[in-house]
Amino acid sequence: MHPAPQAGSDDLVQDNGQPLQQKGDIVSNTEKPQSLPIFGVIFDMDGLLLDSETLAMDALVAAGHELGYDMPATFCRRMIGVPADGCEKLVRETYGHDFPLRRFFDLQEKHLRDFVDNGKLVLKSGVTPLIALLDELRLPRAIATSSSRMRAHHHLKLVGLDKHFPVIVTRDDVDNGKPHPEPYLKAAHLIGIEPRFCLALEDSHSGARAAVAAGMRVIIVPDLLEPTEDVKENALAIVNELTAVQPYIRLAAGMPIA
Fold it and tell me: I need a labelling partner for 184 at 20 to 30 A (CA). Which of 66, 136, 174, 197 fits?
């Protein structure tokens, strides 16, 4: 079995440096422009709308084992939120040029598809009521994801979210993936909303950096990654689940907080 990378931290913290507390906690960064209205919301997909990151990690580990490589979850997590080309570069740099890169990612896709098609893909907590709120407010929304078009549409259709998102920007739809701002800028353009009036919802480092670079406010809902210092510094808020995003959207829309 080939050598494995070093492990990382699994702790999650809020943007005040304290551990996450009860579900629904919200920590706002008061230096960010909270007073601006929200006219559109742009979502990441994996780990934010869909509880898919753990499945993707398991699929990477399984693909590595099938090829005789030790590829632990601590290494695989470095690929969260990173487009395919970035993941390929990371694997190549870590495991060398003799690594069977194409075969590895083909196997990963196969394992992930098996997990998903066997009913393991579910929505993250708070997705359904948040979409209902956006429908109530008639707020445009979009998805900006690092996943391929084929994977994104397959997964969204499987969980019934496809009909709620008329605009889906995938890695195949842009020249530059996250952390470049292009996915978010294109999503904002397609829903007809200026970036400064968009709220981005993210779980990953690269996604958060992309949203900030696009000039959007971003709320982080951590999934498998602890927010880094720069992500915490630039986030409007860090919350435990999407339910906690609702009060902010209501406030930005001029509605009473329920």
Answer: 136
